């Protein structure tokens, strides 16, 4: 499992989760995402694809959703699985948002040592972008 990254956001978990549900807008606030398609929306079993800033377009599947609280998206790769976990915890001033990776499959360990490090390094910017989007401080595009 990758190291969880977290950030405090001055918005309710439901307000932040609404940004996650607006899948088509992820690339607007997440600098690590070029484009994404998830036609069925953020529902368990939904399938689509994500094109990261670096690397090829990859298939994605939503494997877990607890509305307003968490979701997990999995990218199945040859002999490996990359899982992106997202969790929201309510606080007195809004919520704490946490993102982390986990790996599965026979070559999951290799994925963690290679692409995983780069992806984890980008999580800080992803969380900062989400915070700015939710708090209305995102730069005008």
Brief account:
The chain is α+β, with helices and mostly antiparallel strands and about 140 residues long. Helix content is about 30%, strand content about 40%.
What does this entry look like structurally?
With 141 residues, this protein is of the alpha+beta class. The protein has a single domain, classed as 2-Layer Sandwich (Alpha-D-Glucose-1,6-Bisphosphate, Chain A, domain 4). The protein is 28% helix and 40% strand. It contains four helices and seven strands; from the N terminus they run βααββββββαα. The chain has helices at 13-21, 26-29, 108-113, 115-135; strands at 5-9, 33-37, 47-52, 58-66, 70-77, 80-91, 94-104. It has a seven-stranded antiparallel β-sheet. A hairpin with a 5-residue loop joins strand 3 (47-52) and strand 4. The mean pLDDT is 92. It comes from Rhodobacter maris. InterPro entries: Polyketide_cyclase/dehydratase, START-like_dom_sf.
Jot down its keywords.
about 140 residues; single chain; START-like_dom_sf; alpha+beta; Polyketide cyclase/dehydrase/lipid transport protein; Polyketide_cyclase/dehydratase; seven-stranded antiparallel beta sheet; Alpha-D-Glucose-1,6-Bisphosphate, Chain A, domain 4; globular
């Amino acid at each position: 499992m990758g190291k969880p990254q977290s950030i405090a956001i001055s918005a309710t978990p439901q307000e932040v989760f609404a940004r996650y549900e607006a899948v088509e807008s992820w690339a607007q606030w997440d600098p690590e995402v070029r484009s994404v398609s998830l036609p069925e929306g953020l529902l368990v079993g939904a399938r689509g694809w994500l094109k990261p800033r670096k690397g090829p377009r990859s298939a994605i599947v939503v494997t877990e959703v607890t509305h307003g609280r968490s979701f997990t998206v999995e990218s199945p790769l040859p002999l490996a699985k990359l899982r992106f976990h997202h969790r929201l915890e309510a606080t007195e001033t809004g919520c704490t948002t946490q993102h982390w990776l986990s790996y599965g499959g026979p070559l999951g360990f290799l994925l963690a040592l290679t692409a995983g490090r780069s992806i984890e390094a980008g999580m800080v910017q992803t969380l900062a972008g989400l915070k700015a989007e939710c708090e209305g401080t995102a730069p005008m595009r």
